[in-house]
User: Fold this.
Amino acid sequence: MLVAFRKELHRARFGHKLKNDTNKYDYITAPKSDGYRGIHDIYEYNVNSLLGRDYNGLLMELQYRTIYQHAWATSVEIIGMITENQPKFHAGDERHIEFFRLASEIIARVYERSNSCYPLLKDGELVRKFRRLDNEIHILTLLRGLNRSTTQMSGRKNVILSFSTEGTLDLFTYVKGADALKKYFQLEKLQTGADIVLVKGDTGADIRLAYKNYFSDPDDFVRYIESGCAKLLTKKKKRKRSKRIRSN
Assistant:
């Protein structure tokens, strides 16, 4: 569907000029090394209207992604926003980058009958590697906590998320920023090794609005991954059962 939609857009009658070869930014056929999957096009803006003429010649980028690819990409953005790691730019803890490589392979394999970074990994090995890594860095717990935090804010505009090294989450909400900062510094002084995040906004509704994609899409990503792991393991069991039947 995504490729078909893109082809229809290329046939559309408008003045904007496609600047790239159609295969140049196809990261579905050839995923990026970090697991990113999607297709990009660069257009040169070109219209005849009086209001738009001043913008003629400007370049604009279109990104095409499935809902699964978008959930993955959004979660990468979230982790870059709330931690010191930047998997999108290959910076920070290598484990975070590897987490999203494995997640990309799971999503591609289960939902799109395709592959990403690790086409040669067997289903069981892929799931084991992913789960082992997440047990170390607790990204799924982090994303679940972000989604839960916005549903529990009850109009409060300051939210502290404290993620322990064991992967558990403590949630603190405050109306006043001063109270939130006081608690934040108290938690920092304890030096428990927890990853502490302070999310602020004028109101809880403003936080939801400003970070709408960030706080809605993580739930989709977590669901796709958890269901994907279960499906891959079920598929593995069915193959083993089929082999036993044939051998008998």
